Amino acid sequence: MTFLKRYEELRAVKQELAARDWFPGTSGNLAIRTADQPTEFLVTASGKDKRQDTPDDFVHVDASGQLIGEQTGRPSAETLLHVEVFNRTTAGCSLHVHTIANNVLSELYGDRGEIRFSGQEIIKALGRWEEDAEVIVPIIENHADIPTLATAFSKHVTANQGAVLIRNHGITVWAPTAFEAKKHLEAYEFLFNYTLTLHSCRQAIH
After folding, report:
1. Which of 83, 98, 114, 165 has the most CB atoms within 10 Å of its CB?
2. Minimal CA–CA distance to 63: which of 41, 32, 31, 89?
3. Full DSSP string of 81-110
4. How far apart are CA 43 and CA 82, in angstroms?
5. Tens of pLDDT along 139-179?
6. Interior CA angle at 129 toward 128 and 130, to 5°?
7. Do 126 and 140 form a contact (C-beta atoms < 8 A)?
């Protein structure tokens, strides 16, 4: 029953994010934990059009990202990022999307290795309620070799919720539940779009 519930949760997230066109060209991948001991999770199958809804949208994998039992699909190429999240934290859901906003911001701030946000009401959606709260999102280079990318990514997976930008690639967000992961992803994308819009407006004024 829990497995089916997790499947439906991830399916609902996929449908909502697909409706926002956050999966261009079959990009992006989603994962949700289905077991703790040993770690198992569902992850989007590689090469699927995530705007479509089929019984083969997700595959069931173990703690190393390998298929469990006989399955027709294969795990997303970036499954190792989710492996790091589920093995290093107790997070229940991990989401990875490519948007224009997160790609542009990751390039603009890539040389700094991070981007900082403060003074925005939406930061409360990330669980930060202090008036002077600051959110820092690390930015790592986009290594073509996925194990190398996963190693760079893993250095920033230190808590049960967080986010990492991959330069000119996308963002990975994780949190205790699917609802929280989606909420955090929405908050980060709002911050990215706000920052880009603010930069554009300032340039137009000056």
Report:
1. 165
2. 41
3. HHHHHHHHS--SEEEEE--HHHHHHHHHSG
4. 8
5. 999 999 999 999 999 999 999 999 999 999 999 999 999 99
6. 100
7. no
